[in-house]
Amino acid sequence: MSRDGASTGSLGGLLVLDFTTLLPGPLATLMLARAGAEVIKIERPEGEPMRSDLPVFEILNRGKRSIAIDLKADGAKLAGLAARADVIIEQFRPGVMDRLGFGYEAVRAVNPSVIYVSLNGYGSEGPDTLRPGHDLTWQAESGLLSLNVDANGAPVLPAAMVGDIAAGSHAAFANIALALYRREKSGEGARIEVPMFNGLLAFLAEPLAHSAAGQSVHPGYSPATGSSPRYGIYRAGDGRYLALASPEEKFWKAFCQRTGLPLDAGRETIAARLLERGGQEWIDSFDGADLCCSLVLTVGEALATPRMQRLLEADPLPLPIARQLATGAGPLEAAPVLGEANGTLQSQV
């Protein structure tokens, strides 16, 4: 979306009011902007908290506009925008938007076709409705965090915020796309809730299935949690690490052929063999083989690879949106200065 309001892409012409902060909502609305929607970020007068980490704010809020406003004192000034918005997305605890005058029922009364999205922790029903939470606590409470542990059996801090991103951002984007398609056919708006705790359950597909079948679910019970020597992380002779993922027989045979391991090699045998060479030496020896084993790269090393450089040429944060469905060929415009659209947009409300 450009500053002058011109837009191409699958969602060109759609207006999104974004009341979200931090990571889950802003990433969802970044995807909407990348698909061509006009996204107006509604911020508190001092700006949303992520502005304190400017590089992250910049990458998550490209292609958007910003209105800085005290919703408690001046929220009524946004009534006109709310009345014509295609999508409203918010990330407060249940009840907050109602108190601000922008709850779903209030908006639907003047905008019946609106798609209204609430990102929250546990949903608006049940005893946990108002409980605070973060990605880490949702992973802990879902059982997911217990399945990957260190040598002492302690859960490992996950590097990726799968609750925020997959169960939040991506789930919100997918549900908005479904609601827009339904509205195209029926003219009906939608009230959508995206509880991020609930969304994490998709990551427990195997444990849920196994548990329902009467199996004990615990660290090391499955290949993903360490039961198979063919699927794990091994140290090489130079202190680097190799990620081996060859559970399928054809990949495993190719790996054993290149390493000289017997097909019945266990974890200790594999570990001892891989210590005989440096990590990159092993990777070089696998060249041309049909197997899955990679050197564990630092972020800096990954960024220097030709593959990553090609991806980052087009966008500093590549998004899972097909190029032909996105807006334009180049990067989105820079993230907005706080309140840059106050004058031009509030004059329309």
From TrEMBL:
<dbReference type="GO" id="GO:0003824">
    <property type="term" value="F:catalytic activity"/>
</dbReference>
<dbReference type="InterPro" id="IPR023606">
    <property type="entry name" value="CoA-Trfase_III_dom_1_sf"/>
</dbReference>
<dbReference type="InterPro" id="IPR050509">
    <property type="entry name" value="CoA-transferase_III"/>
</dbReference>
<protein>
    <submittedName>
        <fullName>Uncharacterized protein</fullName>
    </submittedName>
</protein>
<dbReference type="InterPro" id="IPR044855">
    <property type="entry name" value="CoA-Trfase_III_dom3_sf"/>
</dbReference>
<dbReference type="Pfam" id="PF02515">
    <property type="entry name" value="CoA_transf_3"/>
</dbReference>
<dbReference type="InterPro" id="IPR003673">
    <property type="entry name" value="CoA-Trfase_fam_III"/>
</dbReference>
